[in-house]
Amino acid sequence: MTRVTIPIGPQHPLLKEPLSFLLTVEGEEVMESVLRLGYVHRGIERLCQERTYVQNIPLIERVCGICSHVHTTTYCQGVEALSGLEVPPRGLYLRALMCEMERIHSHLLWLGVLSKNMGFDTIFMYAWRDREIVLDIMEELSGGRVSHAVNVVGGVRIDLDEEHARSILTRFDVLEQQVERALELIEYEPTLMARTQGVGILSPEQVRRYCVVGPVARASGVDIDLRRDLPRPPYDRLEFKVITHPAGDVWARTLVRVRETRESLHLCRQIIAQLPDGPTSVTAKRRVPEGEVVSRSEAPRGEVIYYIRSDDSDKPARLKIRTPTMTALITLPDQLRGATMADVPVVLSGVDLCIACADR
Amino acid sequence: MPRYNWPLLPEILRTLFNRPITVQYPFGPLEMPERYRGRVDIQAEKCRGCGLCVRDCPASALELERVDKETFRLIYHPDRCAYCGQCEESCRFDSIYLTNDFVPGTPHRENLTTVLVDRKPEEGEESGGDDEPA
Lengths: 360, 134
Ligand code: SF4
Ligand code: SF4
Prior knowledge:
The structure holds 2 protein chains of 2 kinds.
Chain A: E1 3-8, E2 20-26, E3 29-36, H1 44-50, H2 53-61, H3 68-83, H4 89-117, H5 121-142, E4 151-152, E5 155-156, H6 162-188, H7 190-196, H8 204-209, H9 214-218, H10 226-229, H11 250-274, E6 291-299, E7 302-310, E8 316-322, H12 324-329, H13 332-336, H14 344-350, H15 355-359
Chain B: H1 9-16, E1 40-42, H2 52-56, E2 62-68, E3 71-76, H3 86-90, E4 96-98, E5 114-119
Antiparallel strand pairs in B: 1-4, 2-3, 3-5
The structure holds iron/sulfur cluster (2 copies).
One iron/sulfur cluster (SF4) is lined by residues 42, 47-53, 74, 90-91, 93, 95-96 of chain B.
């Protein structure tokens, strides 16, 4: 049979961000795919060396348009470690609260994108409607839906009073009901299962070889989660399950992510219940003593790594970001091999593409 | 095995008679939360022209034209502003702050520029917040 090459992207209705795939197909079957990245490279790492530690926070927040808070958290953790700062417990709890809400928002957003790409618009609408609940809470707390500007070196800027906490908890109840319904849908909806089961399979060996992290790895049965494996306060005092599934296909990823959403809701409740008193931040010096640090956190998509080298000035000498999407992206040619054309959107959405993150 | 075949049906029936939950902006009011980070404003009489906010602004949205302690102008360019709130964080005199006014898009970015503080020695006092193009 003759082989045909089909380009997907850089501009394609399927992709919300520019990414290019060259698919070689024989009939309906994808034989080969070539991935091209770099269309939204913004030179953020280099730019960070030109700006002060303070000015870098809003810039780093813009590495990713979905998990912006976890990026600044990881960056601030690193700078705090370099300057030997101790963040007050209340600051750490509020940071974690934002992180968990961000995870909820990111996973629900992803559920919507996946359903949209496989033509199941009803779930898309419901998932995004429910996501508004957390987005509203985050906007009330921080003043922005996705760019929260919550972190400063030394703590957080926001605070949570009791009345507000109560109102948040009532809205979490509504959200929890909706998440339970979404879970039911994923476990029992025949259309969704038919489209996602057995598609885009990654084996645990492939996951280890490509260093895949986050929900994609957990959906292949690899039990990794930095919140448990490298417990920083407050996660060492919170109870949560690390969700895994052995199947390794897109369906398992859906299930893992929505179950994680439920876990994150429990985490948020615990954080609000245990919120310690005291200040939310300490003042940081502008100059950071010489040194280097690797800072890691569990972002919604997996482990995000920051490497920062300082040289006793107010600007970092080098800053390197490893985003979790990068690891998932390079598995795509493997996942696409042997898939049919109709499954390509499902496979692509299955890994939770965030191209801007990967390109930086 | 599916427990039942229409797991979406109850949700569809529930939402069938709901009103739209989206905000009807611009045909309806747009209510911003109290902490929403919008247009930057200033309590001009408190400003000392120290330039801390200018130094920390990540987007070069603030500009300080300073002659001496008593003569300076603080200019704000909302078209560059990232609404990050860093200026409010940096100001030691509680002078500059973020309001919750949403700044809508405009095809004429130069009209947005605002002189926040225009301090002259003889008045000793401010004249702040006029929407006057620089
Ligand atoms: S909010 Fe941020 S970008 Fe805007 S003027 Fe203040 S510091 Fe600059
Ligand atoms: S607003 Fe505050 S930080 Fe900015 S120049 Fe005036 S006093 Fe200084």
